[in-house]
Protein backbone atom coordinates (compact mmCIF):
# COMPACT_ATOMS: atom_id res chain seq x y z
CA UNK A 1 0.00 0.00 0.00
CA UNK A 2 1.37 3.43 -0.97
CA UNK A 3 1.65 6.30 1.46
CA UNK A 4 -1.18 8.11 -0.34
CA UNK A 5 -3.39 5.04 -0.02
CA UNK A 6 -2.59 4.80 3.71
CA UNK A 7 -3.58 8.44 4.17
CA UNK A 8 -6.81 7.90 2.24
CA UNK A 9 -7.61 4.88 4.41
CA UNK A 10 -6.94 6.99 7.52
CA UNK A 11 -9.53 9.50 6.26
CA UNK A 12 -11.97 6.62 5.81
CA UNK A 13 -11.31 5.51 9.41
CA UNK A 14 -11.86 9.02 10.78
CA UNK A 15 -15.11 9.32 8.81
CA UNK A 16 -16.21 5.98 10.24
CA UNK A 17 -15.29 7.18 13.74
CA UNK A 18 -17.63 10.16 13.44
CA UNK A 19 -20.49 7.95 12.29
CA UNK A 20 -19.82 5.35 15.00
CA UNK A 21 -19.72 8.05 17.69
CA UNK A 22 -23.16 9.30 16.63
CA UNK A 23 -24.54 5.75 16.48
CA UNK A 24 -23.16 4.95 19.95
CA UNK A 25 -24.71 8.09 21.36
CA UNK A 26 -28.06 7.34 19.73
CA UNK A 27 -28.09 3.73 20.98
CA UNK A 28 -26.62 4.65 24.40
CA UNK A 29 -23.63 2.35 23.89
CA UNK A 30 -20.06 2.85 25.15
CA UNK A 31 -18.21 4.63 22.31
CA UNK A 32 -15.23 2.32 22.79
CA UNK A 33 -17.41 -0.73 22.08
CA UNK A 34 -18.78 0.88 18.92
CA UNK A 35 -15.26 1.74 17.71
CA UNK A 36 -13.97 -1.80 18.28
CA UNK A 37 -17.00 -3.21 16.44
CA UNK A 38 -16.37 -0.80 13.58
CA UNK A 39 -12.74 -1.89 13.37
CA UNK A 40 -13.79 -5.55 13.34
CA UNK A 41 -16.22 -4.92 10.48
CA UNK A 42 -13.58 -3.03 8.47
CA UNK A 43 -11.05 -5.82 9.06
CA UNK A 44 -13.47 -8.40 7.69
CA UNK A 45 -14.46 -6.44 4.56
CA UNK A 46 -13.06 -8.23 1.47
CA UNK A 47 -10.34 -6.16 -0.17
CA UNK A 48 -9.83 -3.91 2.88
CA UNK A 49 -6.20 -2.79 3.31
CA UNK A 50 -4.20 -4.82 5.80
CA UNK A 51 -2.73 -2.66 8.57
CA UNK A 52 0.08 -4.09 10.66
CA UNK A 53 0.52 -2.43 14.04
CA UNK A 54 4.05 -1.64 15.20
CA UNK A 55 3.64 -2.03 19.00
CA UNK A 56 6.45 0.38 19.86
CA UNK A 57 5.02 2.99 17.49
CA UNK A 58 1.48 2.52 18.86
CA UNK A 59 2.68 3.06 22.41
CA UNK A 60 4.79 6.12 21.62
CA UNK A 61 2.11 7.80 19.50
CA UNK A 62 -1.02 7.18 21.54
CA UNK A 63 -0.06 6.48 25.13
CA UNK A 64 1.80 9.68 26.21
CA UNK A 65 -0.85 12.29 25.26
CA UNK A 66 -3.70 10.18 26.60
CA UNK A 67 -1.92 9.53 29.90
CA UNK A 68 -1.09 13.22 30.15
CA UNK A 69 -4.70 14.18 29.55
CA UNK A 70 -6.05 11.70 32.12
CA UNK A 71 -3.51 12.77 34.75
CA UNK A 72 -4.18 16.46 34.03
CA UNK A 73 -7.84 16.13 35.01
CA UNK A 74 -7.20 13.90 38.04
CA UNK A 75 -8.51 15.34 41.32
CA UNK A 76 -5.17 15.73 43.10
CA UNK A 77 -6.52 15.99 46.68
CA UNK A 78 -8.57 12.80 46.27
CA UNK A 79 -5.67 11.07 44.48
CA UNK A 80 -3.29 11.85 47.33
CA UNK A 81 -5.81 10.85 50.01
CA UNK A 82 -6.39 7.47 48.35
CA UNK A 83 -2.81 6.82 47.21
CA UNK A 84 -2.38 3.70 49.38
CA UNK A 85 -5.55 2.13 47.95
CA UNK A 86 -4.49 3.12 44.42
CA UNK A 87 -1.08 1.47 44.87
CA UNK A 88 -2.84 -1.57 46.31
CA UNK A 89 -4.62 -1.93 42.96
CA UNK A 90 -1.83 -0.70 40.69
CA UNK A 91 0.88 -2.92 42.21
CA UNK A 92 -0.73 -5.54 44.44
CA UNK A 93 -3.58 -6.46 42.10
CA UNK A 94 -1.22 -6.58 39.10
CA UNK A 95 1.20 -8.97 40.84
CA UNK A 96 -1.62 -11.15 42.17
CA UNK A 97 -3.33 -11.28 38.79
CA UNK A 98 -0.06 -12.10 37.02
CA UNK A 99 0.65 -15.03 39.33
CA UNK A 100 -2.90 -16.39 39.34
CA UNK A 101 -3.48 -16.06 35.59
CA UNK A 102 -0.03 -17.52 34.93
CA UNK A 103 -0.87 -20.61 37.00
CA UNK A 104 -4.26 -21.02 35.27
CA UNK A 105 -2.60 -20.67 31.87
CA UNK A 106 -0.04 -23.34 32.74
CA UNK A 107 -2.85 -25.65 33.87
CA UNK A 108 -4.83 -25.10 30.64
CA UNK A 109 -1.75 -25.24 28.39
CA UNK A 110 0.88 -27.51 29.99
CA UNK A 111 3.04 -27.20 26.90
CA UNK A 112 3.77 -23.52 27.56
CA UNK A 113 6.87 -22.60 29.60
CA UNK A 114 6.21 -20.96 32.97
CA UNK A 115 7.88 -17.76 31.78
CA UNK A 116 5.43 -17.45 28.87
CA UNK A 117 2.47 -18.12 31.19
CA UNK A 118 3.54 -15.35 33.55
CA UNK A 119 4.26 -13.03 30.61
CA UNK A 120 0.64 -13.53 29.50
CA UNK A 121 -0.51 -12.84 33.05
CA UNK A 122 1.43 -9.57 33.08
CA UNK A 123 0.00 -8.60 29.68
CA UNK A 124 -3.58 -9.18 30.82
CA UNK A 125 -3.22 -7.78 34.36
CA UNK A 126 -3.41 -3.96 33.96
CA UNK A 127 -6.71 -2.18 33.25
CA UNK A 128 -6.10 0.49 30.64
CA UNK A 129 -6.26 4.26 31.25
CA UNK A 130 -7.86 4.92 27.86
CA UNK A 131 -10.48 2.20 28.23
CA UNK A 132 -11.28 3.23 31.80
CA UNK A 133 -11.66 6.89 30.86
CA UNK A 134 -13.90 6.14 27.88
CA UNK A 135 -16.28 4.18 30.13
CA UNK A 136 -16.10 6.14 33.39
CA UNK A 137 -16.97 9.44 31.73
CA UNK A 138 -20.41 7.96 30.96
CA UNK A 139 -21.27 6.85 34.51
CA UNK A 140 -21.68 8.60 37.84
CA UNK A 141 -19.60 7.23 40.68
CA UNK A 142 -18.53 8.44 44.12
CA UNK A 143 -15.38 10.52 43.78
CA UNK A 144 -13.33 8.06 45.83
CA UNK A 145 -14.28 5.15 43.57
CA UNK A 146 -13.61 7.11 40.39
CA UNK A 147 -10.24 8.18 41.79
CA UNK A 148 -9.31 4.57 42.57
CA UNK A 149 -10.16 3.36 39.08
CA UNK A 150 -8.54 6.26 37.24
CA UNK A 151 -5.49 6.30 39.52
CA UNK A 152 -5.00 2.55 39.14
CA UNK A 153 -5.14 2.79 35.35
CA UNK A 154 -2.55 5.58 35.40
CA UNK A 155 0.01 3.77 37.58
CA UNK A 156 -0.41 0.07 36.87
CA UNK A 157 1.32 0.12 33.47
CA UNK A 158 4.72 0.56 35.12
CA UNK A 159 4.30 -2.48 37.37
CA UNK A 160 2.84 -4.70 34.63
CA UNK A 161 5.55 -3.77 32.12
CA UNK A 162 8.27 -4.54 34.68
CA UNK A 163 6.75 -7.97 35.39
CA UNK A 164 6.42 -8.61 31.66
CA UNK A 165 10.05 -7.67 31.01
CA UNK A 166 11.21 -9.97 33.82
CA UNK A 167 9.13 -12.85 32.43
CA UNK A 168 10.44 -12.35 28.88
CA UNK A 169 14.01 -12.12 30.19
CA UNK A 170 13.44 -15.40 32.01
CA UNK A 171 12.19 -16.96 28.77
CA UNK A 172 15.18 -15.71 26.77
CA UNK A 173 17.86 -16.54 29.35
CA UNK A 174 16.26 -19.39 31.27
CA UNK A 175 16.98 -17.66 34.63
CA UNK A 176 14.92 -15.57 37.07
CA UNK A 177 16.20 -13.19 39.76
CA UNK A 178 13.88 -11.60 42.34
CA UNK A 179 16.64 -9.10 43.20
CA UNK A 180 16.92 -8.00 39.58
CA UNK A 181 13.15 -7.72 39.28
CA UNK A 182 12.87 -5.57 42.43
CA UNK A 183 15.74 -3.33 41.36
CA UNK A 184 14.24 -2.89 37.93
CA UNK A 185 10.89 -1.90 39.43
CA UNK A 186 12.51 0.66 41.74
CA UNK A 187 14.64 2.22 39.01
CA UNK A 188 11.77 2.43 36.55
CA UNK A 189 9.22 3.86 38.99
CA UNK A 190 11.31 6.22 41.13
CA UNK A 191 13.38 7.38 38.16
CA UNK A 192 10.23 8.06 36.13
CA UNK A 193 8.67 10.12 38.92
CA UNK A 194 11.87 12.13 39.40
CA UNK A 195 12.16 12.81 35.66
CA UNK A 196 8.49 13.82 35.45
CA UNK A 197 8.89 16.27 38.33
CA UNK A 198 11.99 17.84 36.78
CA UNK A 199 10.46 18.22 33.32
CA UNK A 200 7.13 19.36 34.77
CA UNK A 201 8.66 22.13 36.87
CA UNK A 202 10.78 23.27 33.92
CA UNK A 203 7.68 23.42 31.72
CA UNK A 204 5.71 25.36 34.34
CA UNK A 205 8.60 27.84 34.55
CA UNK A 206 8.57 28.31 30.77
CA UNK A 207 4.80 28.59 30.44
CA UNK A 208 4.67 31.35 33.06
CA UNK A 209 6.92 33.42 30.79
CA UNK A 210 5.27 32.69 27.43
CA UNK A 211 2.46 35.03 26.54
CA UNK A 212 1.38 33.44 23.28
CA UNK A 213 -1.53 31.01 23.71
CA UNK A 214 -0.75 29.11 20.50
CA UNK A 215 2.87 28.48 21.55
CA UNK A 216 1.77 27.36 25.00
CA UNK A 217 -0.75 24.88 23.60
CA UNK A 218 1.86 23.48 21.20
CA UNK A 219 4.22 23.11 24.15
CA UNK A 220 1.61 21.16 26.14
CA UNK A 221 1.21 18.89 23.11
CA UNK A 222 4.94 18.27 22.90
CA UNK A 223 5.58 17.68 26.60
CA UNK A 224 4.02 14.19 27.03
CA UNK A 225 6.19 12.82 24.23
CA UNK A 226 9.25 14.57 25.65
CA UNK A 227 8.64 12.95 29.03
CA UNK A 228 7.84 9.50 27.64
CA UNK A 229 10.67 9.29 25.10
CA UNK A 230 13.23 10.80 27.48
CA UNK A 231 12.25 8.34 30.19
CA UNK A 232 12.56 5.35 27.88
CA UNK A 233 15.93 6.57 26.59
CA UNK A 234 17.25 7.04 30.13
CA UNK A 235 16.08 3.59 31.22
CA UNK A 236 13.30 4.77 33.54
CA UNK A 237 9.52 4.56 33.19
CA UNK A 238 8.27 6.92 30.50
CA UNK A 239 4.74 6.14 31.71
CA UNK A 240 5.51 7.37 35.24
CA UNK A 241 7.29 10.46 33.90
CA UNK A 242 4.28 11.38 31.76
CA UNK A 243 1.75 10.75 34.52
CA UNK A 244 3.80 12.79 36.99
CA UNK A 245 3.96 15.72 34.57
CA UNK A 246 0.21 15.49 34.02
CA UNK A 247 -0.51 15.55 37.76
CA UNK A 248 1.83 18.52 38.19
CA UNK A 249 0.18 20.45 35.37
CA UNK A 250 -3.28 19.64 36.68
CA UNK A 251 -2.32 21.12 40.05
CA UNK A 252 -0.73 24.31 38.68
CA UNK A 253 -2.85 24.98 35.58
CA UNK A 254 -5.21 27.28 37.49
CA UNK A 255 -2.32 29.65 38.21
CA UNK A 256 -0.22 29.18 35.09
CA UNK A 257 -2.73 29.42 32.24
CA UNK A 258 -4.59 32.64 31.44
CA UNK A 259 -8.34 32.19 30.88
CA UNK A 260 -8.06 32.43 27.09
CA UNK A 261 -5.21 29.91 26.93
CA UNK A 262 -7.02 27.48 29.22
CA UNK A 263 -10.25 27.64 27.18
CA UNK A 264 -8.37 27.14 23.91
CA UNK A 265 -6.21 24.35 25.34
CA UNK A 266 -9.22 22.51 26.75
CA UNK A 267 -10.99 22.66 23.37
CA UNK A 268 -7.86 21.48 21.54
CA UNK A 269 -7.19 18.59 23.91
CA UNK A 270 -10.84 17.51 23.92
CA UNK A 271 -10.76 17.00 20.14
CA UNK A 272 -7.29 15.41 20.22
CA UNK A 273 -8.12 12.88 22.92
CA UNK A 274 -11.39 11.98 21.21
CA UNK A 275 -9.61 11.18 17.96
CA UNK A 276 -6.73 9.32 19.61
CA UNK A 277 -9.02 7.21 21.80
CA UNK A 278 -11.28 6.41 18.86
CA UNK A 279 -8.34 5.49 16.61
CA UNK A 280 -6.96 3.16 19.28
CA UNK A 281 -10.17 1.19 19.59
CA UNK A 282 -10.70 1.03 15.83
CA UNK A 283 -7.13 -0.27 15.46
CA UNK A 284 -7.81 -2.89 18.12
CA UNK A 285 -10.64 -4.11 15.91
CA UNK A 286 -8.49 -3.93 12.79
CA UNK A 287 -5.71 -5.93 14.49
CA UNK A 288 -7.83 -9.08 14.29
CA UNK A 289 -6.18 -9.95 10.98
CA UNK A 290 -2.75 -10.10 12.67
CA UNK A 291 -3.75 -13.16 14.70
CA UNK A 292 -2.22 -16.19 13.00
CA UNK A 293 -3.90 -19.61 12.61
CA UNK A 294 -4.02 -22.26 15.32
CA UNK A 295 -0.75 -23.40 16.89
CA UNK A 296 -1.16 -27.20 16.89
CA UNK A 297 1.82 -27.74 19.20
CA UNK A 298 -0.02 -26.05 22.08
CA UNK A 299 -3.66 -26.81 21.27
CA UNK A 300 -4.25 -29.75 18.90
CA UNK A 301 -7.87 -28.81 18.14
CA UNK A 302 -9.88 -25.64 17.72
CA UNK A 303 -12.15 -26.69 20.59
CA UNK A 304 -9.15 -26.94 22.95
CA UNK A 305 -7.99 -23.50 21.80
CA UNK A 306 -11.40 -21.93 22.43
CA UNK A 307 -11.53 -23.56 25.85
CA UNK A 308 -8.06 -22.30 26.71
CA UNK A 309 -8.83 -18.73 25.65
CA UNK A 310 -12.17 -18.74 27.50
CA UNK A 311 -10.56 -20.18 30.62
CA UNK A 312 -7.81 -17.58 30.78
CA UNK A 313 -10.24 -14.70 30.09
CA UNK A 314 -12.62 -15.94 32.79
CA UNK A 315 -9.74 -16.42 35.23
CA UNK A 316 -8.51 -12.87 34.62
CA UNK A 317 -11.95 -11.43 35.37
CA UNK A 318 -12.53 -13.63 38.45
CA UNK A 319 -9.09 -12.93 39.91
CA UNK A 320 -9.82 -9.20 39.93
CA UNK A 321 -13.03 -9.85 41.88
CA UNK A 322 -11.11 -11.99 44.37
CA UNK A 323 -8.61 -9.19 44.95
CA UNK A 324 -11.30 -6.48 45.22
CA UNK A 325 -13.42 -8.44 47.71
CA UNK A 326 -10.34 -9.64 49.60
CA UNK A 327 -9.03 -6.08 50.05
CA UNK A 328 -12.49 -4.94 51.17
CA UNK A 329 -12.69 -7.80 53.69
CA UNK A 330 -9.29 -6.85 55.12
CA UNK A 331 -10.34 -3.20 55.46
CA UNK A 332 -13.65 -4.23 57.05
CA UNK A 333 -11.88 -6.48 59.56
CA UNK A 334 -9.33 -3.79 60.41
CA UNK A 335 -12.10 -1.23 60.96
CA UNK A 336 -14.07 -3.66 63.12
CA UNK A 337 -11.06 -4.37 65.34
CA UNK A 338 -10.55 -0.62 65.83
CA UNK A 339 -14.20 -0.02 66.55
CA UNK A 340 -14.66 2.18 63.48
CA UNK A 341 -18.25 2.19 62.12
CA UNK A 342 -18.69 0.21 58.91
CA UNK A 343 -19.12 2.48 55.89
CA UNK A 344 -22.20 1.62 53.86
CA UNK A 345 -21.84 0.44 50.29
CA UNK A 346 -18.34 -1.03 50.57
CA UNK A 347 -19.30 -4.43 49.16
CA UNK A 348 -21.08 -2.72 46.29
CA UNK A 349 -17.94 -0.69 45.62
CA UNK A 350 -15.92 -3.94 45.58
CA UNK A 351 -18.27 -5.34 42.94
CA UNK A 352 -17.79 -2.24 40.79
CA UNK A 353 -14.01 -2.35 41.23
CA UNK A 354 -14.02 -5.97 40.14
CA UNK A 355 -16.22 -5.37 37.10
CA UNK A 356 -14.51 -2.16 35.94
CA UNK A 357 -11.26 -3.77 34.78
CA UNK A 358 -11.36 -2.78 31.10
CA UNK A 359 -8.23 -3.64 29.10
CA UNK A 360 -7.00 -1.75 26.06
CA UNK A 361 -4.08 -0.47 24.05
CA UNK A 362 -1.27 -1.26 26.52
CA UNK A 363 -2.18 -4.95 26.72
CA UNK A 364 -2.51 -5.19 22.93
CA UNK A 365 0.75 -3.38 22.19
CA UNK A 366 2.72 -5.43 24.71
CA UNK A 367 1.23 -8.66 23.33
CA UNK A 368 2.22 -7.65 19.81
CA UNK A 369 5.78 -6.95 21.01
CA UNK A 370 6.35 -10.52 22.22
CA UNK A 371 9.21 -12.37 20.46
CA UNK A 372 8.23 -13.97 17.18
CA UNK A 373 9.72 -17.34 18.22
CA UNK A 374 8.00 -17.44 21.62
CA UNK A 375 5.94 -20.62 22.08
CA UNK A 376 2.20 -19.95 22.12
CA UNK A 377 2.52 -16.41 20.74
CA UNK A 378 -0.65 -16.81 18.66
CA UNK A 379 -2.50 -17.98 21.76
CA UNK A 380 -1.23 -14.91 23.65
CA UNK A 381 -2.44 -12.57 20.90
CA UNK A 382 -5.86 -14.22 20.61
CA UNK A 383 -6.39 -14.26 24.38
CA UNK A 384 -5.37 -10.62 24.73
CA UNK A 385 -7.69 -9.51 21.93
CA UNK A 386 -10.58 -11.56 23.38
CA UNK A 387 -10.12 -10.09 26.86
CA UNK A 388 -10.07 -6.54 25.48
CA UNK A 389 -13.24 -7.22 23.50
CA UNK A 390 -15.07 -8.82 26.44
CA UNK A 391 -14.08 -6.22 29.03
CA UNK A 392 -14.74 -3.16 26.87
CA UNK A 393 -17.97 -4.37 25.26
CA UNK A 394 -19.54 -6.52 27.98
CA UNK A 395 -18.20 -5.03 31.20
CA UNK A 396 -18.04 -1.47 29.92
CA UNK A 397 -21.53 -1.73 28.44
CA UNK A 398 -23.09 -3.05 31.66
CA UNK A 399 -21.16 -1.02 34.23
CA UNK A 400 -23.90 1.60 34.61
CA UNK A 401 -26.46 -1.18 35.20
CA UNK A 402 -24.25 -2.69 37.90
CA UNK A 403 -23.90 0.71 39.58
CA UNK A 404 -27.68 1.07 39.75
CA UNK A 405 -28.07 -2.53 40.97
CA UNK A 406 -25.54 -2.14 43.79
CA UNK A 407 -27.06 1.18 44.87
CA UNK A 408 -23.68 2.90 44.93
CA UNK A 409 -24.72 6.41 43.94
CA UNK A 410 -22.79 9.61 43.60
CA UNK A 411 -21.61 10.81 46.99
CA UNK A 412 -22.56 14.30 48.04
CA UNK A 413 -19.64 16.67 48.06
CA UNK A 414 -20.35 17.74 51.63
CA UNK A 415 -20.29 14.13 52.90
CA UNK A 416 -16.84 14.56 54.39
CA UNK A 417 -18.02 17.38 56.65
CA UNK A 418 -15.18 19.79 55.99
CA UNK A 419 -16.03 20.34 52.32
CA UNK A 420 -18.31 23.12 51.16
CA UNK A 421 -21.00 22.41 48.61
CA UNK A 422 -20.75 24.03 45.18
CA UNK A 423 -23.47 26.51 46.16
CA UNK A 424 -21.71 27.47 49.40
CA UNK A 425 -18.41 27.94 47.57
CA UNK A 426 -20.16 30.06 44.93
CA UNK A 427 -21.62 32.26 47.70
CA UNK A 428 -18.14 32.69 49.24
CA UNK A 429 -16.74 33.66 45.83
CA UNK A 430 -19.54 36.19 45.31
CA UNK A 431 -18.84 37.73 48.73
CA UNK A 432 -15.12 38.08 47.93
CA UNK A 433 -15.95 39.76 44.60
CA UNK A 434 -18.42 42.12 46.26
CA UNK A 435 -15.84 43.12 48.90
CA UNK A 436 -13.26 43.74 46.16
CA UNK A 437 -15.58 45.93 44.06
CA UNK A 438 -16.63 47.96 47.11
CA UNK A 439 -12.98 48.97 47.52
CA UNK A 440 -12.31 49.54 43.84
CA UNK A 441 -15.58 51.34 42.98
CA UNK A 442 -15.06 54.19 45.45
CA UNK A 443 -12.30 56.81 45.27
CA UNK A 444 -10.47 58.47 48.16
CA UNK A 445 -13.12 61.20 48.37
CA UNK A 446 -15.86 58.63 48.88
CA UNK A 447 -17.39 59.07 45.42
CA UNK A 448 -18.79 55.99 43.73
CA UNK A 449 -17.01 55.57 40.40
CA UNK A 450 -18.68 52.37 39.21
CA UNK A 451 -22.23 52.28 40.57
CA UNK A 452 -23.50 49.65 38.14
CA UNK A 453 -20.65 47.26 38.93
CA UNK A 454 -21.26 47.79 42.63
CA UNK A 455 -24.96 47.07 42.22
CA UNK A 456 -24.26 44.04 40.01
CA UNK A 457 -21.88 42.33 42.44
CA UNK A 458 -24.09 43.07 45.44
CA UNK A 459 -26.97 41.46 43.57
CA UNK A 460 -24.80 38.44 42.71
CA UNK A 461 -23.80 37.96 46.32
CA UNK A 462 -27.40 38.12 47.50
CA UNK A 463 -28.58 35.68 44.84
CA UNK A 464 -25.75 33.23 45.50
CA UNK A 465 -26.33 33.35 49.25
CA UNK A 466 -30.07 32.74 48.91
CA UNK A 467 -29.48 29.87 46.48
CA UNK A 468 -26.89 28.22 48.75
CA UNK A 469 -29.50 28.14 51.53
CA UNK A 470 -32.43 26.92 49.44
CA UNK A 471 -31.35 25.59 46.01
CA UNK A 472 -34.51 23.58 45.50
CA UNK A 473 -36.92 26.42 46.31
CA UNK A 474 -35.24 28.84 43.90
CA UNK A 475 -34.89 26.41 40.99
CA UNK A 476 -37.78 27.92 39.05
CA UNK A 477 -36.36 31.44 39.45
CA UNK A 478 -32.96 30.23 38.29
CA UNK A 479 -34.43 28.49 35.24
CA UNK A 480 -36.41 31.61 34.30
CA UNK A 481 -33.28 33.75 34.70
CA UNK A 482 -31.34 31.33 32.49
CA UNK A 483 -34.00 31.40 29.80
CA UNK A 484 -34.12 35.21 29.81
CA UNK A 485 -30.35 35.58 29.51
CA UNK A 486 -30.16 32.93 26.80
CA UNK A 487 -32.86 34.79 24.89
CA UNK A 488 -30.81 37.99 24.96
CA UNK A 489 -27.73 36.14 23.68
CA UNK A 490 -29.71 34.55 20.86
CA UNK A 491 -31.17 37.95 19.91
CA UNK A 492 -27.74 39.59 19.92
CA UNK A 493 -26.23 36.82 17.81
CA UNK A 494 -29.10 37.05 15.32
CA UNK A 495 -28.67 40.82 15.02
CA UNK A 496 -24.92 40.83 14.33
CA UNK A 497 -25.32 38.02 11.79
CA UNK A 498 -28.06 40.02 10.06
CA UNK A 499 -25.80 43.09 9.97
CA UNK A 500 -22.93 41.01 8.58
CA UNK A 501 -25.11 39.39 5.93
CA UNK A 502 -26.29 42.84 4.90
CA UNK A 503 -22.67 44.01 4.53
CA UNK A 504 -22.96 46.61 7.30
CA UNK A 505 -20.15 45.31 9.56
CA UNK A 506 -16.71 43.89 8.77
CA UNK A 507 -15.69 40.29 9.44
CA UNK A 508 -13.35 41.27 12.28
CA UNK A 509 -16.18 43.18 13.99
CA UNK A 510 -18.40 40.10 13.67
CA UNK A 511 -15.72 37.88 15.21
CA UNK A 512 -15.12 40.22 18.15
CA UNK A 513 -18.81 40.57 18.97
CA UNK A 514 -19.35 36.86 18.43
CA UNK A 515 -16.51 36.09 20.86
CA UNK A 516 -18.17 38.28 23.50
CA UNK A 517 -21.46 36.45 23.02
CA UNK A 518 -19.68 33.08 23.13
CA UNK A 519 -18.07 33.98 26.45
CA UNK A 520 -21.41 35.14 27.81
CA UNK A 521 -23.06 31.92 26.72
CA UNK A 522 -20.19 29.83 28.11
CA UNK A 523 -20.50 31.55 31.48
CA UNK A 524 -24.27 31.13 31.41
CA UNK A 525 -24.17 27.42 30.55
CA UNK A 526 -21.44 26.76 33.10
From TrEMBL:
Residues 14-405 form the Cation/H+ exchanger transmembrane domain. It holds the Pfam family Na_H_Exchanger. The chain crosses the membrane at residues 6-24, 33-51, 57-79, 86-107, 157-178, 184-203, 210-228, 234-251, 271-292, 304-326, 347-367, 379-403. It is a multi-pass membrane protein. InterPro entries: Cation/H_exchanger_CPA1, Cation/H_exchanger_CPA1_bac, Cation/H_exchanger_TM. Keywords: Antiport, Cell inner membrane, Cell membrane, Ion transport, Membrane, Sodium, Sodium transport, Transmembrane, Transmembrane helix, Transport. Na(+)/H(+) antiporter that extrudes sodium in exchange for external protons. Belongs to the monovalent cation:proton antiporter 1 (CPA1) transporter (TC 2.A.36) family. This is Na+/H+ antiporter. The lineage of its organism: Bacteria, Pseudomonadati, Pseudomonadota, Alphaproteobacteria, Acetobacterales.
